[in-house]
Amino acid sequence: MDFVWALLQHTPIWVYFLFSFLMYKGCRLLKDHWVDLNKIWIFPVVFFVLSIESMATHFGITYTSCAFLSFGLLCGVVLGLLKALRVKHRYEVKVKRIFVPGSVLPMIQILIIFTTKYYFGYMENVHPEMVHDQTFMFEVLGVSGLCTGLFIGPMLKHLYYMRKGSMH
Q1: Residues of 70-79 as b/e, b for ≥16 C-beta within 10 angstroms?
Q2: Which of 5, 68, 83, 144 minimizes the number of CB atoms within 10 Å of its CB?
Q3: Shortest CA distance to 159 belongs to which of 98, 94, 78?
């Protein structure tokens, strides 16, 4: 228990604010809601930027790091798209908004991203030599890319149907 307390005490205050904000957003996504087309970019862009920042800061931009992140992104986009295709969304093309049924999946994605970034950050601070380990790099960037892709996949579906003018 001392370990957990020490971990919490050494966590920067901004991390608690970020966690609170993400939980607030995740809870809102549990309920059915309408989303303006302009807002479907927020989570994919934020998490994509965080993935790139994580790669650049911790591993550098190399062929290997880009390949690991790209692999995770591709897997996430495919899985996110497959999941989104199973969900019946409604589109109001004229007012550019999408009806999204409530789901626990975005909350799970947010928790996975937050937890893994926190865990990998902790591991990097405790064992800085791990940054040079290819397996560690693959785990960090693969999970980051996968989770980001899970947000990008549905966004691509929505953009496609809105552009097509579909009421799917």
Answers
A1: ebbbeebbee
A2: 5
A3: 98
